[in-house]
C-alpha cells in the first residue's frame, strides 16, 4: 500500500503527511478539518456529558448507601476484623516502613502474604490508599471507589451494546447494588466484581473498533482482577469472556461492523491472546500463589460446595418479604433445610436479588413486546444467566470438580454475579424498549419511578441481609489507645500472643495464635503438629494446652477472665478495659480483659539441645529479615519458631547455610560451637520469576504500542486487505 494513501486516512497522519511530496495542501487541510470535526462531534460531546452525569450518580449512590463511611466511620462484622483488617494494617505498616509486604510474621507463625493474595499487596489502589490514609480510611475509600467504578463500567458496557443512557443506568444500578452490598463484609466481592463489566466493555469495544488499544485494556483489566487479591471472581470473569467472545462473533454478530464479521477468526485470536497476556501481566501475583496452593490445605481437599445457593432459596428473587425480615434467622433457616451431608452456606453467599421494580419491567417487556425484546444478544445473556443460576446450588460440582480451576474455589453461589448482570441487562433492555414507545414526559417519569423504587428497594435489602454494621466511631481508630499493645511493646524481643479471636490481635502489631486464613500453609491445618487450640473469650484456654503453647513460642496470654486458677507459669501484666479490643469484640466495659506474661516458654528462638551456657538473642526482627546472635559451647540446631517455607534463606556469619525443618513446621539451622550471627532473609524465587514475566509482558505491550503509534500501516492484522488502519 502506498504510504501516502493511508496517511491521508489514518490517525497519526497530520505530523507525517507533510513529508509526502504528492499530498497537496488542500488534502492536508481537508484531513485536519475532518479530524477536528470528528473529535468535537455532537455525539461524542453528548456521550462525555452523559458519562459525567453517570459518574455523579455513581458517587451520589455511595453517599446514599454508605453515608456513615463518608463521614469517617467504619465497618464491623463478618470477616472485617478477623481477616481483612489484620492483613490491611500489616500492609499499611509495611508501606510506612518502606518494605514490600511479602511475608506476614504476625498471623500464627507467619505466612507468605503476597501469595495468600487477599492482602492485595501489589494491587495498585491498595498501594495508593494505604500510603495516603490510615488503615480504616484506606479500607473504606477503596470499597467506595470500586462501587463507583463498578457502576461506571457497567454503564459503559451497556452503552457499548446499544442501550440508551437512561436504560444503561438501570443496568448499572441493579448490578452494582443488587449483588454487592450484602457482601460488604467481603472486600474482594466489590473489588473483584468491578472488573467483570470492565472486561466485557473492553472486549466489546475492540469488536466494535478493532483497535489494539482495547486489547491492552482487556489485558490490564484481567490483570487487575487477579492482582486485586481474590481469584474466584477473576475466574468467573474469564469464564464469561470465554463464552462471550465466540458467541458474540458467531451467534450475535449481526450488530457488529462488517469488517469485524469478515475477520472473526483474527478478532477471536486477538482477544484470546489479550486474555493470555492478562495472565502474564499478573504473573508477579500468580506465581507465588501457585506455589502456596501446592503447599496449602486446598492442595489435598476442600469443600467446594460451601457457600452454595439452595434452589428453593431462588424464591428470594420474587418473594423478598418472606426472607428479608428481622424475625427470620436466614443462616439458621438455610442450613436447617439442607439435605444430609450437604455443605454449609450462609445468607451472604446465598444472596441473589435484583429488586422488584426491574422484575416488573422485565415481565412487562415480555408481555407487551414479546419477540421484539428477545434479540440474539439478549438470548445469549439469558442463556448465560440460566447456566450460572443452575450452577449456584452446586448440582454440577461432581463434574466440575475435575475441571481446571473449578476445584480450587468454594462458593458456587458466587456465580450469582453472572445471573445478576444478565438480569440487569435484560431489565435495561426492556426499559429501553418500553420507554421508547412513550413521549418524552412519560419516558422520564417511567425511568424516574423505576430508578427510585429500585434504589429504595436495594437500600433496604442492603441493611436487611448483611453481616456488617456501619459505625460512626470505627474501633480501628483506637488502636493507639490500646493498653494491651502498650504492654506488649514493653517486652524485650518479639511477642506472640495466645488469644481468643483469630487474627484480631495482629492489629496490635504482635504475632498471635490461633489463625484464620482462606488459603494457608498446610501445616496450620495438620492436627498431628499439636498446635495451640482456640478458646472462647470468656473461658480459660484448655489446661492441657500448656506444652503446646510453650512449644509454639507464645510469650503472652490474653483472656476475658482471670486465669489465676489455671496453674500456668505466668504473671498478670494488666487487666481492664482496652479501647480497641472492647470495641472490636463489642464487649461491655464491665467485663475486663486480662493480659498475662508466660514464663518457661521457648520464645521466638531457642536451642534444640541447649548446653548450660547457651544463649540466644534476637537483634533484628522484621517480616523478611531476622538477625540472631547465638552462642553455644557445643553448637547444635538453632530453632526459630516461625514457619519454614520456600524462599527463606539462612546464613551464618555471612556464609550460606542449609535450613532444616524443626518440629514439623519451624525453621532450623545447624550452628557450630561458638558465638555466631545467624541471619534469615526472605527471597521468594516464585515472586522474582513472576516479576520477570510481568516486566517482559509490559515491555511487549510497550513495543506493540510504539509500533502501532509510529508505524500503523505495518500492524494491520485486524484490517481487511486494502483497508487502512
UniProtKB/TrEMBL annotation:
TM region(s), chain numbering: 51-69, 138-156, 163-180, 186-203, 212-229, 235-256, 268-287, 350-369, 378-395, 415-434, 441-461, 687-710
Keyword Amino-acid biosynthesis: no
Pfam family name, one: YfhO
Official protein name in the record: Bacterial membrane protein YfhO
Family matches, as InterPro entries: Uncharacterised_YfhO
Record carries keyword Iron-sulfur: no
Keywords, sorted A to Z: Membrane, Transmembrane, Transmembrane helix
Amino acid at each position: 500500500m502506498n504510504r501516502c494513501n493511508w496517511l491521508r486516512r489514518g490517525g497519526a497522519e497530520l505530523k507525517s503527511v507533510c513529508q509526502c511530496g504528492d499530498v497537496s495542501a488542500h488534502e492536508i487541510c481537508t484531513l485536519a478539518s475532518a479530524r477536528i470535526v470528528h473529535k468535537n462531534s455532537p455525539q461524542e460531546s453528548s456521550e462525555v456529558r452523559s458519562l459525567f452525569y453517570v459518574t455523579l450518580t455513581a458517587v451520589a449512590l455511595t453517599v446514599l448507601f454508605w453515608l456513615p463511611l463518608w463521614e469517617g466511620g467504619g465497618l464491623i462484622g463478618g470477616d472485617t476484623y478477623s481477616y481483612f483488617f489484620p492483613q490491611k494494617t500489616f500492609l499499611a505498616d509495611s508501606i510506612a516502613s518502606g518494605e514490600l509486604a511479602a511475608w506476614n510474621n504476625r498471623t500464627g507463625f507467619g505466612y507468605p502474604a503476597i501469595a495468600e493474595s487477599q492482602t492485595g499487596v501489589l494491587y495498585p489502589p491498595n498501594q495508593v490508599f494505604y500510603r495516603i490514609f490510615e488503615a480504616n480510611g484506606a479500607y473504606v475509600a477503596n470499597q467506595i471507589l470500586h462501587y463507583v467504578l463498578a457502576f461506571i463500567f457497567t454503564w459503559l458496557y451497556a452503552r457499548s451494546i446499544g442501550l440508551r443512557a437512561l436504560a444503561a443506568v438501570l443496568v448499572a444500578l441493579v448490578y452494582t447494588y443488587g449483588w454487592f452490598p450484602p457482601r460488604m463484609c467481603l472486600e474482594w466481592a466489590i473489588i473483584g466484581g468491578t472488573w467483570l463489566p470492565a472486561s466485557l466493555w473492553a472486549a466489546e469495544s475492540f469488536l466494535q473498533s478493532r483497535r489494539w488499544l482495547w486489547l491492552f485494556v482487556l489485558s490490564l483489566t484481567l490483570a487487575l482482577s487477579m492482582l486485586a487479591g481474590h481469584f474466584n471472581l477473576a475466574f468467573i470473569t474469564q469464564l464469561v469472556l470465554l463464552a462471550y467472545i465466540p458467541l458474540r462473533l458467531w451467534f450475535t454478530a449481526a450488530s457488529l461492523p462488517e469488517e469485524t464479521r469478515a475477520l472473526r477468526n483474527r478478532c477471536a485470536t486477538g482477544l484470546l491472546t489479550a486474555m493470555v497476556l492478562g495472565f502474564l501481566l499478573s504473573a508477579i501475583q500468580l506465581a507465588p500463589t501457585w506455589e502456596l496452593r501446592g503447599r496449602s490445605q486446598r492442595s489435598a481437599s476442600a469443600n467446594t460446595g460451601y457457600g452454595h445457593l439452595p434452589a428453593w432459596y431462588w424464591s428470594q428473587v420474587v418473594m423478598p418479604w418472606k426472607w428479608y425480615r428481622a424475625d427470620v434467622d436466614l443462616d439458621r433457616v438455610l442450613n436447617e433445610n439442607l439435605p444430609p451431608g450437604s455443605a454449609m452456606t450462609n445468607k451472604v453467599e446465598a444472596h441473589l436479588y435484583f429488586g422488584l421494580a426491574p422484575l416488573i419491567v422485565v415481565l412487562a417487556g415480555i408481555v407487551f413486546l414479546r419477540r421484539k425484546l428477545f434479540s440474539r444478544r439478549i438470548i445469549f445473556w439469558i442463556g448465560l444467566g440460566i447456566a450460572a443460576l443452575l450452577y449456584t446450588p452446586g448440582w454440577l460440582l461432581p463434574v466440575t470438580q475435575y475441571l481446571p480451576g473449578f476445584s480450587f474455589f468454594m462458593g458456587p453461589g458466587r456465580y450469582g454475579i453472572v445471573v445478576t448482570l444478565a438480569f440487569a441487562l435484560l431489565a435495561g433492555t426492556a426499559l429501553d424498549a418500553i420507554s421508547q414507545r412513550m413521549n418524552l414526559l412519560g419516558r422520564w417519569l417511567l425511568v424516574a419511578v423505576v430508578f427510585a423504587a429500585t434504589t429504595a428497594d436495594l437500600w433496604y435489602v442492603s441493611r436487611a441481609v448483611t453481616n456488617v454494621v456501619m459505625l460512626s466511631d470505627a474501633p480501628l481508630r483506637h488502636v493507639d489507645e490500646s493498653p494491651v499493645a502498650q504492654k506488649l511493646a514493653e517486652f524485650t524481643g518479639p511477642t506472640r500472643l495466645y488469644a481468643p479471636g483469630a487474627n484480631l490481635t495482629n492489629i496490635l502489631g504482635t504475632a498471635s495464635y490461633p489463625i484464620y486464613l482462606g488459603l494457608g500453609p498446610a501445616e496450620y491445618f495438620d492436627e498431628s503438629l499439636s498446635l495451640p487450640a482456640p478458646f472462647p473469650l470468656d473461658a480459660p484456654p484448655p489446661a492441657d494446652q500448656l506444652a503446646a503453647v510453650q512449644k509454639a513460642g507464645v510469650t503472652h496470654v490474653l483472656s476475658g477472665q482471670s486465669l489465676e486458677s489455671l496453674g500456668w507459669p505466668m504473671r498478670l501484666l494488666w487487666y481492664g478495659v482496652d479501647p480497641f479490643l472492647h470495641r472490636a469484640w463489642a464487649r461491655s466495659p464491665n467485663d475486663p480483659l486480662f493480659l498475662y506474661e508466660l514464663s518457661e516458654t521457648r520464645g521466638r528462638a531457642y536451642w534444640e539441645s541447649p548446653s548450660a551456657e547457651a544463649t540466644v538473642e534476637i537483634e533484628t526482627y522484621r517480616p523478611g529479615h531476622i538477625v540472631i546472635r547465638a552462642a553455644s559451647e557445643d553448637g547444635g540446631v538453632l530453632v526459630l519458631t516461625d514457619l519454614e517455607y520456600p524462599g527463606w534463606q539462612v546464613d551464618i556469619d555471612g556464609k550460606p547455610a542449609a535450613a532444616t525443618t524443626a518440629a514439623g513446621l519451624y525453621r532450623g539451622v545447624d550452628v557450630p560451637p561458638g558465638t555466631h550471627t545467624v541471619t534469615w532473609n526472605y527471597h521468594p524465587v516464585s515472586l522474582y520469576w513472576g516479576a520477570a514475566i510481568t516486566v517482559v509482558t509490559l515491555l511487549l505491550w510497550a513495543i506493540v504500542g510504539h509500533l502501532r503509534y509510529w508505524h500503523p500501516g505495518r500492524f494491520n492484522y485486524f484490517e481487511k486487505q486494502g483497508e487502512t488502519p
